[in-house]
Amino acid sequence: MIRLLATVTAMALIPATAIGADAASADSIRQWIEDLDDDRFDVREQASENLTAAGKEVIAPLQAAALGGSMEAGFRALRILVRLAEREGPAIGDPAMEALKEIAKVPERAAGRRAASIVDGWKKARQAKIYAQIRELGGSILQQSDGVTMVKLGSDWKGGHRGVDLVQQLPELRSLSFEQSTLDDDALKRLEGLTNLNRLYLGESKIQGKKFALLKSLTGLDYLSLKDMKIDDEALEPVGEMTHLAHLGLDGTPVGDAAMAHVKKLVKLQRLWLSGTNVTDAGLAQLKDLKELNRLEVPETKIDGTGLAHLKDLPKLTYLVLNDVKLSDAGWQALATLARLETIELKNTSTTDADLLRLHNFESLKRVYLSGTQVTDEGVAALKKALPRCSVSK
User: Where are the beta strands (DSSP E) in 153-221?
Assistant: First the structure.
């Protein structure tokens, strides 16, 4: 059983007795609460023992005593709540922990500060225990580049769907990956209620998108990666209703223009990955109202660039990736209308010096990537002369 905090173990916790006793009367509970501040030590001890054994009926009075009683009564009330919380479970442990959390919301009181320390220690101890169980089942705990902790249930995961229930016990989890796992659509049901989950990676799993509607309960989700999943356009219909999404990865999926009819509803979308999809210029046209979009990646797609003309009024679009795309002359003309761009990637395209001339009036341009193109050193020099603050990588 988890010990809530090192300081708690030093509190000389009272042994729990008669845990299965009948519920105490309201009068008895009231008297025991008063006795926590009695001048006689043995009376205070007996009251503490009675309250510890009485059950969940004492939780609310103990919460009040912790914040409103004397220092002695408050300390004892807090100590009893800790002991009740250690029993774990919905009957007594969970309500007692909720009471401690409420007390912790009053930092101006000594009991509130003590409770905050206890709750924090409990969270850390519980988290460590769950992390250990996840590792035993083949999962891993990773630190992402920005310091966010990710739980990954990947190719070595042996816990199946029932093991995913461990994730439910991490209500503050922000990043979760099922990438390369054997988990299927039914695993998504077990994520309901994780409202703090911010990033979800499902790529290369057995999930087919049949139950994406379950993801709508993840109201804190900002980043959804479906990379390399075998999903169809229709699977994205419920995703289109997740209007809080800011980042969507569809790279490597077989989705096409019909899927963009759902993506266009994501009014808060900032980054969209479409590499290797079946999206064409007609699909790009459907993105014209995504006013928050600042990065669009469409490498290895069937577009010729003409659809870019529909994006010229997007005020925040500053990063465009067109690697391995066959831009037509009309496509270059459309690209030339995106004068707000700060970064353009044109790797492995047929870009020539003549094409670069179209970028000379891009005053905001800071970076251009041109490896694998037909551009010469002279063409690069001319671009740098026109845009001296622009970095060109060839």
Answer: 175-177, 199-201
If you write DSSP's letter for every residue of 319-343 in order, what string do you get?
EEE-TT----HHHHHHHTT-TT-SE
Final residue before a domain boundary, out of 65, 97, 129? 129
Upper half-sphere CA count for residue 90 (Cβ side, 13 Å) = 0
pTM of the model: 0.81
Pair (251, 372) in one structural domain = yes
CB contact set of 64 (below 8 Å; sequence gap of 6+)? none
pLDDT digits (tens, 9 = 90+) for 100-143: 999 999 999 888 999 999 989 988 888 999 999 999 999 999 99
Dump pLDDT digits (tens) for 273-315.
999 999 999 999 999 999 999 999 999 999 999 999 999 999 9
pLDDT digits (tens, 9 = 90+) for 38-75: 999 999 999 999 999 988 899 999 999 999 878 899 99
Show the domain range for 42.
6-129
**171, 111: one domain:** no
pLDDT in tens, 88-103: 678 888 899 999 999 9
**Chosen domain end from 129, 164, 180:** 129
Nearest-angstrom CA–CA distance, 217 and 41? 52
Cα 277 to Cα 273: distance, rounded to the nearest angstrom: 9
Residues 6+ apart with CB under 8 A from 381: none
Collapsing DSSP to helix, strand or coil, 362 comes out as: coil
CATH number of the structural domain spanning residue 197: 3.80.10.10
Report how many domains make up the chain: 2
pLDDT for residue 171: 86
Q: Which of 146, 143, 120, 118 is nearest to 131 (CA)?
A: 143
115 lies in the same domain as 184: no
Q: Is 13 exposed, middle or buried (0-12, 13-18, 19+ CB in 10 A)?
A: middle
What is the rounded CA–CA span in Å between residue 288 and residue 352? 28
